[in-house]
Write a structure and sequence with these properties.
Chain A: One of its GO terms (cellular component) is plasma membrane. By secondary structure, chain A is an all-alpha fold. Chain A has three helices and no strands. Chain B is mainly α and about 550 residues long. In chain B, about 75% of the residues lie in helices and about 0% in strands. Chain B is built from 23 helices and no strands. Classes of the chains: A mainly alpha (about 100), B mainly alpha (about 550). At the A-B interface, helix 1, helix 2 and helix 3 of A face helix 7, helix 8, helix 12, helix 13 and helix 15 of B.
Chain lengths: ~100, ~550
């Protein structure tokens, strides 16, 4: 299939395409801000106040706040990629198929 | 203020371990020849050579060669990405860092992981929808082919070169340690095997070598972590308490040490790791091996899972080494230091929890790991030369698209380049044996973050990007990263032996990434040429394709 300029213009003006772009970009931006925020907050905390992460989670426990926070960022990364993949491969891809079906008829 | 700057510099001096772990630095002693390890490694070689032979038969076109025909599944690609990204030096280096400083090892791992979600959210699917073989395809999609391909091929080759040197030197030292082979023999062996995989098997063989290596490394590391936890009756609190009691730094190992100190270096390092991962050519290339955007997303999801899991394992392994290696005189020399250096603690732990056979297994896995990483790098370098420089720049494209490069010619150039890269890698490995290469992986990430990443990102997202802007801004980013690294403590003081650095921070990314973005922006908006208008006009078709996959290169028929 070779797409034509007409097809492209039609897709670009299709309200469903605009909806797809708005939803997908909004979601991707939100998740990017979450992971960037979490990581740089973590790094800045280490740079400005490293002692804070050395405080035990419970008085007398060897486990410090740094452990759940560090492991938390690893789990958060995995979780966010899962959430995005699930929504993009379902909802967004269905929307994409609808948009494309318009020009592939 | 001055006191603060002095303090920052002092702390920086203490943090030289960061990124160095990735490069396996320091003196190593050659160990006794380990026959179990050699036999296991031979089994790996025989298996992967079989795969290479099978792959060679299936490679009939350039698309097969560079992208495995686009037929790799998301799950397989996720494993292969993990195999491409988890280097032997990071396995040994991070566990060694945990062993010697505790919590700092975790900070280091997190930096290497957090780039992945970002790749998924902003890069992966647009890259897959727009590109064919290399990320330069995407960067040059609506810009001047010659200029942008030259820039991004150059960016790729520089990143590949520094990364490759670090891996080759690491490989030589590691194999000396694990197998008792000579440094020279080890480097030549790695170079030759890497050439064979890439030369004959292309992306298909490289992918399977990476998948097998990922599975072996993850299983080996899982077993070690399991045995460590078993030794404390699966009581994590006991594991930490015992480690605090044994370790000479005591409870300091549960808090950040001197690894990340002043805010500028911290942010700079964070930017290099996050954006650098999204600009590594051998990683970006992996997204063209899957059929579509859907599989590309799955690839990142699985890769993030595997890499994150691996880093958690190395943390446990590092603590396990404090419990089981630090206390065992068998692993220490007369002076009380770890036999073979601190980087060997994970290997000693393997012997402590699994005996000689498991030690052999882990050594063989470490060797396999090096091969998988260097094969991926070589393939990325070869594709930059043959696809970007030869076919697209010199010959003006492939014959089927109206250019003058035939598939056969492009393949021939690829194979010559692969051979040349292999020989160059061996030579560089030998030349840099005694050099301090701790800065090289950091430099590779900084350049990837300051040249490849801004150009790629803006080419997909910013309508007003022009060829002139991308070319000048990208080149400025690359140069800034290079010059500031040379002037930084890691090279100016540690390598060149000056007493104080001209650029006081260890990582240039904060400055060089900013320079790149500002440069690209300024030289784009002031560009009133006809070419600039054309590039802007092509944004809508590119945008539609990047969002929907309309007209994207699909899987080839088999």
């Amino acid at each position: 299939m070779q797409e034509t300029n007409d097809d492209i213009q039609r897709i670009y003006e299709d309200p469903r395409f605009k909806e797809l772009v708005a939803k997908k970009s909004g979601f991707a931006n939100l998740l990017s801000v979450i992971i960037l925020g979490a990581y740089f907050a973590f790094i800045l905390l280490i740079a400005f106040d490293p002692k804070l992460l050395g405080i035990p989670v419970v008085e007398g426990s060897p486990i410090t706040w740094g452990i759940p926070m560090g492991v938390g960022i690893i789990l958060l990364s995995f979780l966010l990629t899962g959430v995005y993949t699930l929504r993009a491969n379902g909802e967004f891809d269905n929307l994409t198929k609808e948009v494309l079906s318009e020009v592939q008829k | 203020m001055i006191a603060r700057a002095v303090l920052a510099t002092a702390l920086l001096a203490a943090s030289s371990a960061l990124l160095a772990g990735e490069a396996m630095t320091g003196e190593v002693q050659k160990q006794a020849t380990n026959w179990t390890a050699i036999l296991m490694f031979l089994a790996f070689i025989v298996g992967t050579m079989g795969i290479t032979k099978w792959a060679a038969k299936r490679n009939t076109s350039t698309s097969d060669y560079y992208t495995a025909g686009g037929g790799i599944t998301g799950f397989q690609n996720g494993l292969a990405i993990a195999g491409d990204y988890m280097s032997a030096a990071s396995f040994l280096g991070i566990s060694a860092l945990v062993y010697s400083s505790g919590y700092d090892g975790l900070i280091y791992s997190i930096g290497f992981l957090v780039g992945w979600p970002l790749i998924l959210f902003i890069i992966a699917e647009r890259l897959r929808n727009l590109g064919k073989f290399t990320f330069s395809d995407v960067a040059s999609y609506r810009l001047g082919q010659t200029e942008i391909r030259l820039l991004s091929a150059f960016g790729s080759l520089v990143v590949v070169a520094f990364y490759l040197i670090a891996q080759m030197v690491g490989a030589g030292k590691l194999i000396q340690l694990l197998f008792g082979l000579d440094y020279m023999v080890a480097v030549v062996l790695v170079g030759v095997l890497m050439i064979v995989y890439v030369f004959f098997g292309g992306m298909l063989a490289t992918t399977w070598v990476q998948i097998i290596k990922a599975v072996l490394l993850l299983s080996g590391a899982s077993f070690m972590a399991f045995m460590v936890l078993k030794s404390v009756n699966f009581d994590v609190v006991k594991m930490f308490s015992d480690a605090i009691a044994i370790h000479p730094k005591h409870d300091a190992i549960m808090a950040p040490g001197g690894l990340v100190s002043d805010p500028i270096s911290a942010i700079s390092l964070g930017m290099a790791l996050m954006f650098g991962t999204a600009g590594l050519p051998h990683i970006l290339m992996r997204f063209f091996t899957v059929a579509d955007a859907r599989e590309a997303r799955k690839s990142v999801f699985y890769a993030t899972g595997f890499i994150g899991y691996f880093y958690i394992l190395t943390f446990v392994i590092g603590f396990g080494a404090i419990l089981l290696v630090m206390t065992n005189p068998e692993f220490k020399d007369a002076a009380g230091a770890i036999v073979g250096g601190t980087n060997m603690v994970a290997v000693h732990l393997a012997s402590a929890v699994g005996g000689n056979v498991f030690l052999g297994f882990i050594s063989a896995v470490a060797f396999a790991t090096i091969l998988a990483v260097v094969a991926g790098l070589t393939l990325a370098g070869a594709s930059a030369v043959s696809h970007d420089l030869y076919a697209c720049v010199i010959k003006g494209g492939y014959t089927k698209d109206g250019g003058r490069a035939t598939e056969d010619d492009a393949m021939r150039v690829t194979k010559i380049t692969t051979l040349a890269l292999g020989v160059v890698a061996i030579l560089l490995g030998i030349i840099f044996e005694k050099q301090n290469i701790a800065f090289m992986v950091g430099l590779a990430f900084s350049i990837a973050a300051s040249c490849n990443f801004p150009v790629l990102l803006l080419s997909m997202y910013w309508k007003d990007l022009t060829t002139r802007g991308a070319l000048i801004g990208g080149a400025l980013g690359l140069l800034t990263a290079l010059v500031l690294t040379i002037l930084s403590p890691t090279v100016w003081v540690d390598v060149l032996g000056n007493t104080s650095a001209i650029f006081p921070w260890k990582y240039p990314a904060l400055f060089s990434v900013t320079t790149a973005f500002v440069g690209i922006w300024f030289f784009s908006i002031t560009d009133k040429s006809k070419a600039a208008q054309e590039a802007r006009a092509k944004f809508i078709p590119q945008f539609v394709r990047s969002q929907t996959g309309l007209g994207a290169a699909g899987a080839s028929a088999h």
